[in-house]
């Protein structure tokens, strides 16, 4: 839970102090702290506790308006009636709220899509409340399949308010990009359990978001034919989940640092990726070994991932990978001489607690720009690089390994020696090196084979 936004205007209300009402003597900051641990519904109910509580909840920096819990226990024949009643209450809460919102989540029924209520809610929380993070979830009863999701029909420019930077849609059917016109304000887009007629429609929707940096797609196409095209030079994080089979997919993203694939049915030769920061070895592509549901993660460890304000990538992956299947593929590009990149690499590896079928590491060689007094990874040689790692990897492949680089050698040796990290096979690419570099790399491999625990790892060059 977050505290109230500091951008909200200060309240000028004066409340009488009742000597018999101890709550009325507490400072607003403490009351807000108490409310931060309550749901929106519980927070609204506190208004009956004391005169001081009447308006406190109205200055929360977030609202979660959820009718799903009620609808889940409502008989089918009464869903319409109950949803309308709850919609009125939700409208009242929005209208009574004061100040601005950092984030707002609205979970509703299909009626609100059809009668204009949803449009009114969106206009209020974006235009009046200046919501930064908006999540819309359409209630779909368990008796219905999500392929029958309700049509999201909204006015043009609905999501174009300058304050809105993150949008999440769940359980809708989209037919066109009208509501997304001129959405240069959005940085993050999540489309979850979305039904779209065909891939070209989704291409048009995504083309309206020229400023997006994060895209998460979990969509179903009614027509499996066509080409899905994503072209965005601001895009840094792309996650693809459960895309059914289409003819081809094209991604053009010069700044892409993370490509996370849960499950897509696109054959290796029909997936076009133009992203200079991402190294993809298509020999381990998803259609190999009948592992269409095997997750893949391609990650360029960069300054973008280190920024606090963009830690959404960690939030998405951290929560999404909890229920991952046991084996998966991870490919990372990292500069081992950069301590910040090594720290991020550790975080990424710790997400894969169930093991990796294959781990690819592409070593980046760039000039180090360390701040004064900052130590390199080599200065911490005796410290474990993965102190909390309990990682099992079937196969490790190393690319661009510099045998004369002490920091890279120290990193690889810890992969081999550190007990909590279990590596069964290690392949080190040397065939493309010029003679001197190849000699140094093969000499380093020979040293790795002499390590104390080398007998547990099969090491070879390719």
From TrEMBL:
Alphabetical list of Gene3D superfamilies matching this protein: 1.20.1280.50, Ribonuclease Inhibitor
Start and end residues of each F-box domain: 20-56
InterPro entries the UniProt entry points to: F-box-like_dom_sf, F-box_AtFBL13-like, F-box_dom, F-box_plant, LRR_dom_sf
Recorded coiled-coil stretches: none
CDD domains for this protein: F-box_AtFBL13-like
Superkingdom in the source lineage: Eukaryota
One Pfam family named in its UniProt record: F-box
Record-given protein name: F-box domain-containing protein
């Amino acid at each position: 839970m977050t505290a109230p936004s500091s951008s909200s205007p200060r309240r000028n209300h004066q409340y009488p102090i009742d000597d018999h009402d101890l709550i009325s003597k507490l400072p607003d900051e403490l009351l807000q702290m108490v409310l931060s641990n309550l749901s929106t519904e519980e927070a609204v109910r506190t208004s009956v506790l004391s005169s001081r509580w009447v308006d406190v909840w109205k200055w929360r920096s977030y609202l979660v308006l959820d009718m799903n819990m009620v609808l889940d226990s409502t008989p089918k024949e009464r869903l319409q009636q109950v949803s309308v009643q709850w919609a009125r209450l939700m409208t009242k809460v929005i209208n009574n709220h004061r100040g601005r919102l950092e984030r707002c989540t609205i979970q509703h029924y299909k009626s609100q899509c059809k009668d204009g209520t949803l449009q009114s809610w969106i206009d209020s929380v974006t235009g009046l409340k200046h919501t930064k993070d908006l999540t819309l979830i359409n209630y779909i009863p368990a008796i219905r399949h999500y392929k029958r999701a309700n049509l999201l029909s909204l006015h043009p420019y609905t999501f174009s308010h300058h304050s809105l930077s993150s949008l999440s849609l769940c359980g809708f059917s989209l037919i066109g990009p009208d509501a997304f016109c001129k959405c240069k304000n959005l940085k993050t887009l999540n489309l979850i359990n979305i039904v779209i007629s065909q891939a070209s429609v989704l291409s048009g929707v995504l083309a309206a978001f020229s400023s997006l940096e994060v895209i998460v797609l979990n969509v179903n196409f009614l027509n499996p034919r066509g080409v899905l095209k994503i072209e965005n030079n601001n895009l840094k994080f792309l996650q693809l989940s459960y895309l059914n089979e289409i003819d081809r997919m094209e991604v053009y993203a010069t700044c892409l640092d993370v490509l996370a694939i849960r499950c897509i049915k696109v054959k290796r030769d029909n997936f076009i990726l133009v992203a200079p920061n991402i190294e993809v070895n298509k020999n381990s592509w998803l259609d190999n070994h009948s592992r269409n549901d095997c997750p893949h993660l391609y990650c360029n460890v960069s300054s973008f991932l280190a920024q606090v304000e963009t830690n959404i990538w960690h939030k998405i992956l951290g929560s999404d990978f909890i229920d991952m299947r046991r084996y998966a593929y991870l490919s990372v590009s990292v500069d081992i001489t950069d301590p910040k990149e090594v720290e991020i690499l550790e975080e990424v590896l710790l997400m894969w607690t169930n093991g990796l079928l294959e781990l690819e590491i592409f070593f980046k060689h760039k000039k180090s720009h360390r701040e004064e007094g900052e130590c390199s990874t080599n200065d911490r040689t005796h410290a474990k690089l993965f102190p909390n790692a309990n990682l099992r990897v079937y196969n490790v492949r190393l690319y661009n390994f510099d045998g004369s680089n002490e920091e890279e050698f120290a990193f690889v040796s810890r992969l081999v020696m550190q007990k909590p990290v279990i590596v069964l096979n290690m392949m080190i690419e040397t065939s493309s090196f010029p003679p001197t570099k190849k000699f140094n790399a093969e000499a380093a491999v020979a040293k790795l084979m002499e390590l104390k625990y080398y007998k547990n790892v099969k090491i070879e060059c390719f």
